Amino acid sequence: MTFQEQILEGIPSVLPQPKVYETQINHAPKRKEILNEEEKKLALKNALRYFEPQHHATLIPEFKEELEKYGRIYMYRLRPDYEMKARNINEYPGKCTQAKAIMLMIQNNLDYAVAQHPHELITYGGNGAVFQNWAQYRLTMKYLAEMTDEQTLVMYSGHPMGLFPSHKEAPRVVVTNGMMIPNYSKPDDWEKFNALGVTQYGQMTAGSYMYIGPQGIVHGTTITVLNGFRKIKRTPSGSLFVTSGLGGMSGAQPKAGTIAGCVTVCAEVNPKITKIRHEQGWIHEIIEDLDQLVTRTRQALANKEVVSIAYLGNIVDVWERFDQDNLHIDLGSDQTSLHNPWAGGYYPVSLSFEEANKMMAENPAQFKEEVQKSLRRQAAAINKHTAKGTYFFDYGNAFLLEASRAGADVMNPNPTLGREFKYPSYVQDIMGPMCFDYGFGPFRWVCTSNNPEDLQKTDAIACAVLEEMKKNSPEEIQQQMADNIQWIKGAQQNKLVVGSQARILYADAEGRIKIAEAFNQAIAKGEIGPIVLGRDHHDVSGTDSPYRETSNIYDGSRFTADMAIHNVIGDSFRGATWVSIHNGGGVGWGEVINGGFGMLLDGSTEASKRLQSMLFWDVNNGIARRSWARNEGAVFAIKRAMETQPLLKVTIPNTVDETIL
């Protein structure tokens, strides 16, 4: 069968042969056993819903074995034989160009070079899933290939509920992931209901088909590192950034450190992912011996090298050894997946990688104890470094939250609303006041031609737009404009593309609209192929997350989720091609609500109208909320937006004289 025929086949009427379990692939860890006997039967019944009754006798023992062996039913047998990668949009079967673009993005999320656990349909973060199983993937792709522009595909946590009649201006796909009744949103609830096959953890851009590999976070991390050094009045040259995590999005950290121009030491316990990042050029060197690491780091600092070093081992050992040897760390952070601490997101220092994987499945209670012991040790070592002048920030992975739950010494001795911890979230002191309040966030695009020449042309278009805008930009945003012009100029030489031909930069509403309009005109002239626009959920208005995206909201509303819900509703009727809303991205199940979108530009006048309407709302919804929280930068930004758009009328907060109060 051709690639197109396999897509159109969906779930085959004749079962394919069972697949060999490929040990060289980076697989998800075994999930803990959480279902009772009746629930296991229910999980099997739920999985078998996808198959005609004549196949049930064959599949029951196979799915039972998967559930017992891996803690989930992935339906490995149904994994397609074709290569999983983003293709030219014209290679996809279908009646609707928008649907073809979504197929391209789904395949990019599952590309072996992009996905963390591709055979388990997990893109990043240890549990950020595109689908729960391969039947869902096959059925979704079939629906997309059959869809017209008068239909909308409804996605329930990876399950394609079906194609419903709609209209041309409606989103082609609406995605929800993990939207639980609030009282059923604890970590064990995810384990249970995911094992039953009724919900999934979509992370942020994994479950919304908008992940573009680690590049998606390289830019934000570069901006964070640069602004972190500015905050402590240090230049990156000859300075040290220490962090951890190379899997999924955290793999961007060493590349970002290199672009910023510092020495980066990043610890990772998984040898497979460390090897992949080295082969991709995201890290320069791998060191497995602590003595050697100390010597090499001192040498790099003395020579002011721009180098990224992966330590294949535990980050706790690095923090403790660098303290013991008085090796000064300028910037410190952590990006292990502590939103998922009990199922492979964080590996305790007391166990080897193999021992940890075994214990988390077979003795989860003991594993939790080991993780919490390790967090207490790590926090104690970090405290010793910060006492010597290290600037440490939480990188939005729930490190401080989980460390506090473990009883670590991370609480602020004089807490105030929003400042419960000793250390800030990077959004509180860096990204929030410097970027999000002014409307700057991670705008991204994908060239559906899959042609590197199209990416070069879009880079040049975006750069020209930003340089023209900078001439008349107010002083308050000159630094943001300069950083992004520098970024886009160096994007090609930094070899950021993994998977699809994609790019990211931080832009405000004006910048996003002008860049998108310039792309649409270039498409209309035949200079480039169609473009998919999107963004990270980690943005100005896409996410309500009290310890990350909205951690610099101090009016008491950071635990509300009105902004994210309004964002996705508003995007859906203003022209998005697809929209998504998730529970649990980035910082943990039950800790955040986040939404995203995708939009296809095809060179049409309709696309021009859609992009102007939707992109303006998508950003200014968040600025308005931040302004109402009395954030000065956001008040400035929303007033500026009202000057440019007479139909925008936003309630501006009045401030109270503290002496009267």
Written description of the protein model:
It contains 21 helices and 19 strands. With 661 residues, the chain is α/β, with parallel strands linked by helices. The protein has three domains: 194 residues, 3-Layer(aba) Sandwich (Urocanase fold), CATH 3.40.1770.10; 197 residues, Rossmann fold, CATH 3.40.50; 222 residues, Urocanase fold, CATH 3.40.1770.10. The strands form four sheets. Strands 3, 4, 5, 14, 15, 16, 17, 18 and 19 form a nine-stranded mixed beta sheet that branches. Strand 12 and strand 13 form a beta hairpin. The radius of gyration is 24 Å and the shape is globular. The model has no long low-confidence stretch (mean pLDDT 94).
Would you summarize the structure shown here?
It contains 21 helices and 19 strands.
Structural features:
six-stranded parallel β-sheet; Rossmann fold; 3 domains; Urocanase fold; 42% helix; alpha/beta; nine-stranded mixed β-sheet
CATH class of the largest domain: Alpha Beta
The assigned CATH architecture of the largest domain is 3-Layer(aba) Sandwich
**Amount of helix:** 40-55%
Q: Please, what is the CATH homologous superfamily of the largest domain?
A: Urocanase superfamily
The main sheet comes to: 9 strands, mixed
* Mean model confidence by pLDDT: 94
Structural class: alpha/beta
Unreliable runs: none
Beta-strand percentage range: 5-15%
The rounded distance between the terminal residues' Cα atoms is 74 Å
Keywords: Cytoplasm, Histidine metabolism, Lyase, NAD
Function: Catalyzes the conversion of urocanate to 4-imidazolone-5-propionate.
Subcellular location: Cytoplasm
Protein name: Urocanate hydratase
